Every structure is written in structure tokens, then in C-alpha cells.
Amino acid sequence: MGKPARGIRAENRERLEAAILTIARRHLGEVGAAGLSLRAIARELGMASSALYRYVASRDELLTRLIVESFTALGDAAERAEAAVPRGDVRERFLATGRAVREWGVAHPFDWALLFGSPVPGYAAPGDRTTPAGTRVQFLLLRILADMAHLGMATAPNADGISPAARASAAAIADDLGREIDTADLTPELLLAGIDAWTLLIAGVSREVFGHLGEIADAEELYESTLRHALSLVVAAPAP
Amino acid sequence: MGKPARGIRAENRERLEAAILTIARRHLGEVGAAGLSLRAIARELGMASSALYRYVASRDELLTRLIVESFTALGDAAERAEAAVPRGDVRERFLATGRAVREWGVAHPFDWALLFGSPVPGYAAPGDRTTPAGTRVQFLLLRILADMAHLGMATAPNADGISPAARASAAAIADDLGREIDTADLTPELLLAGIDAWTLLIAGVSREVFGHLGEIADAEELYESTLRHALSLVVAAPAP
DNA sequence: TGTACATCAGTGAACGCGCGTTCACTGATGTAC
DNA sequence: TGTACATCAGTGAACGCGCGTTCACTGATGTAC
User: Fold this and answer.
1) Distance separating alpha carbons of residues A111 and A122, to the nearest angstrom
2) What is the pTM of this model?
3) Which of A23, A39, A113 lies closest to B120, judged by CA?
4) pLDDT tens per residue, chain A (240 residues)?
5) What is the DSSP letter of A213?
6) Are the Cβ atoms of A163 and B34 closer than 8 angstroms?
7) Strand D nucleotides in reach of protein CB atoms, 7 A cut-off
8) How far is the CA of A181 from the C1' of D32 (A)?
9) Given an 8 Å threshold on Cβ–Cβ distance, is B232 in contact with A161?
10) How many Å does it take to go from CA A156 to C1' C3?
11) How far apart, in whole angstroms, are the C-alpha atoms of residue B96 and residue B81?
12) Which of B158, B196, B227 best probes binding to A when mutated, by most A CB atoms within 10 angstroms?
């Protein structure tokens, strides 16, 4: 009969670490990030609040873990959806990514608020821990954009009036984001349009998740329209 | 010699009501909406916390007042900027509105978070008090859009693939928002594009105000680019 | 103009609740010989 | 395999702090006659 591969303690620890994150995530949805409380989590686990400090260094560190976990889940979802589309169908790769982002956000509204909502007062996410996971979707979109450019499909609408400062910002962002990507085909104009496409996607989801939409509209269909508008910022309209 | 027109009490009350809102607004910036505390405000005023209840019904009511005041200030700023542009220059009216929105947001980051950030847990804004002030900028943009349409300038990019559900949502929103506006020229396509233009404006400001931008970019120039992208959603590119 | 009464502003104590974090400690699990 | 010691998990009390809201109350301002 198989003995427990690695002790009862290790098993318990794993179970508890997972339970803490699960409960924390639910509390997040009930009281928001600012109200997240270690004591409340301990209470629900039926243990003394001090015991939590065996698993979590502090309240802020727990928040950081939640953020990283959420960014990872979002990145996974987006990449999975995008990977399922044939490489050649670049428009559809963009749309699939956008749909995956919305689906994740709608399914995890409070995690969404944590990632894209107003900042938690008194808490500053440590960039070195959150940035790698936090930029995965942007990278994904950037790769799609590069492919579009390579195929000659991409056309940013307002190539005309781009100021030198905006151009410089685009270059800086490309430099910062694009180390691992072939950015040869990405003009500053296109990159700026890509940034706003991404901004519009995020906002389209936030608008729904944060309840700024009222109950009038069919949120999913509205987002489909938003997706197309975002796409129109970076790509020429397809032949009808 | 003029006697005080209306008693020392009325004067004090006015002063205090204003002071409470001023202090509350500052606290908002230090601890966020979720941390806003009547006791802290009373402490700063040097009075007993119970005394505040002579001026404010409850913490939530104070939040509501802050929201209405902020929406009003934003609406004022946007309308003032737009009114300064010659009626005929419809593009510039749009751009001026967008710039005013950003300027207000950057100058009042925490009020911005209150209006457009993630919702405050446990607090639901009473729509009957916040909606009238909260929709003024949308109305303004809608009037501009109607003028564009009237002049034949407006062209929504993806008239092609609009689903019946999206079309219905657009109609419902037009019905809801557009009672006081001549919506004759506003097609559903155009209205949907207008919604996303507005969404993009808000998000362009939030992106900066919430610090999602890093320190790489020139935020103002980036927003100029965003403004043009938003405009491109509703209007054909101008002749060069 | 002077007085009696009503209104209002502000007090301070209290109720009942919450939080993060530290610390000395017990008792169980794991490990080396 | 058995024992001695080290590690780890969890306890419970404590520190020092916060909050919203209610209530009976004093003393000042305003008003009617």
C-alpha cells in the first residue's frame, strides 16, 4: 500500500494554502479588496487569526498573490482561446482573444475589479511580481498586431496627426513590451492604435462588470460591437 | 449698518456643510471611498462624531452627495469647454469635450475613481439622485453626434455586422438617453459607435488616473492620440 | 424693547462591532542516529 | 525498530487602533407676543 509520498504536513499545507486563496477570493467579492480581512478568513477556516501568519506574510502579500493568480488565469484563458484559431485568420484571432477576456471578466467580476478597477488605497502592487503575469494579454495582442502588419492588413486610421511626443511614447512602449517580439512591421501609428484597441476592450468589459451599463442593453451583443470597433482601429474593413 | 441677512446659524450651517464636503473629498483621496469615515471628518473639524449627524444623514448619504457634486463639476467643465468652440466646427467640439473630461479627471483623480472606478462595496448609488448629473456628458456627446450626422459627416465603420440584438440595445439606449435630443439622424450603427467613443474616452482617462500606464508614456499626448481614435469611430477622416 | 418658549447645534458616553500583528506557549509531526 | 531532538502548526491573549450610530443632555440662537 502506497505510503503518503511526502508526509501529512505537506499535504495539509497545500490544502490550506489553496483554501485560503479560495476563501479570500470569495470575500473579495463580498467586501472588496479594501475590506479583505485576514481575521475573517481565519474565522471561516475555524482557526485562530494568528495561525494564518504561518501561510501568509501579511494582508498585502495575500493581495499580491491574488493579483498574480488572477492575471495568470486571465492570460491562460486568452491564450487558450487564441491558440484555437487557425494562424492565418488574424481577425478571428483578435476577436477570440477579446471574447475570452470578456468571458473571464464577467465570470470573475471581483478579480476583474482587482486587476482593472481603481487602485486599492494604501496598497501598491510590487511590479516585479505582478508585471510578468499582468502583461501577457498585451503581448498576445501585440503578436497578433505584428502578424497583421506583416500581412499588410493593418492600417491605423490617423497616421496623419501624430505628435513627436506620442511617437516617442509609442517607441518607449514598444521597447518596453516588445523585446521578445518581432516589431519590425509595427509603426508607431499602428502601435498607438493597438494600445487604444486594448484600452477599448478592457473598458468594454469594465463597463459591463462595474454595472455602468444599466439593464437596458444586451451586454454581450454590445461587446461584440465594441470588439469590431476596436478591430477597426487597427485593421482595414474586410471586403463585404 | 447691514444686519446679517439671515442669522448666524444659517451662516454657520452653510460653512460647515461646505467644510464637510471639502474634507470628505480630501479623505477620499487618502483612504478611498471604502475607507471614508464620518468619525475622521468630525475629528478634523474638532467636533464630536455625533454632531455630524446634524448635517449628514449617514455615511452613504455623504457618498451620494460627493458623487452628485462630482458629476456636476465634470458636466460643467465639459459643457463649458464645448460651448467655447464655434458650432460649425463639430470635430473640434468633440475634441474639446474629450480634453475637458481628461483635464477634470487628472485634476480630481479620486473623484474620478468614485465616478468611474470599481463600485464601492456595500454601497449602491441611488439612481434617481445620481443619474441626472451623471449623464450630462453623454448627452453632450450625443448632441455633437447628432450634429455630425445632420451634416453628413458621421460614418460608423462597421455598419455591416450589427446583430439584431445590438440594434435593439442601441434603440433602447437612444430611447433612454435621447428623449430631449433630435435623434432623427442617428442610426443604430452610429449610436453604437458613439457609445464606444465615449467608452474609449473614459478608459483613456482612467488608464492614466489609475496608474495603469507606467511612467513610460507622455500621458497627455497618448490621450490626444486616443481622442483621434475615438473620433475615427464616428466620423470619416478629414481631407488632408 | 423685554420676556418666555421653541428650536437647533453640539457634547460625551455608550453599544457592539471590526481590524493587523506580535508573542510566549503547547502539542503534534518529522528526522537522525 | 526505538528513542531523542528539532521543526512546525496552531492557540489564545494582548496591544492599540478603528468604525457607524443612538441617546439623553446642555447651552446658545431665534421667534412670538
Assistant:
1) 18
2) 0.91
3) A113
4) 334 457 889 999 999 999 999 999 999 988 889 889 999 999 999 999 999 999 999 999 999 999 999 999 999 999 999 999 999 999 999 999 999 999 999 999 999 999 999 888 888 889 899 999 999 999 999 999 999 999 988 887 665 667 888 888 887 877 776 666 766 778 888 999 999 999 999 999 999 999 888 777 799 999 999 999 999 999 976 644
5) T
6) no
7) 8-14, 18-24, 29-31
8) 85
9) no
10) 83
11) 6
12) B196
Q: What is the residue whose three cell numbers read 470599481? A: B118
C-alpha cell at B91: 470635430
Residue with cell 432623427: B184
Nucleotides of C under 7 A from a protein CB: 8-14, 18-24, 29-31
Q: How many residues are given for chain B?
A: 240
